[in-house]
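Section 5.1 Outputs to date
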Amino acid sequence: MVKEPIPGRVKTRLGRDLGMVQAAHWFRKQALDTIHRLEDPRWDLVLAVSPDHAGMTSRFWPAHLERLPQGRGDLGARMGRLLRASPSTKTCIIGADIPNIRPQHIASAFAALGSHRGVIGPSDDGGYWLIGMRHGRHAPATLFKGVRWSTPCARKDTQSSAKDLNWAEINTLSDVDTLEDLTRLNAQARGAL
């Protein structure tokens, strides 16, 4: 899922401390790095874009990739619609603000869907960086109902909204919502060198 990298419309919490132009620039670079890193012949990479019209005609994103409009509603409504519309037997949705994501993480999620109906990639803030389903078109009607988005309860609320799914959890990764998140990830990257 990607948003047009327009200052003031993307990464606004990060932008409050970093500046809206710098936050939009960071997101654009991060999203493009993620897209290029995750292009892999083992799966089809599709961009779910927002806003719908601007995203479908955007020159920011690689022209060779299929695009779908996210549509209206909160995050749960948009993700539910994308899962239910998927023609694939296994579908995973990620955001574009997870710097440490690698193809092996996506492969792990798809492998988990061999024995589980749902998969989730936790983030250390209580949310998640990936959600996937086997046969997303049959997602429970309750999926994403009552989720407290952008809180430490988002992952647990999501899993509780579809209790009948047997959920697999894969690697915990961090997304970037704030300057503190970005600073922490940059420090981790420097420590790994």
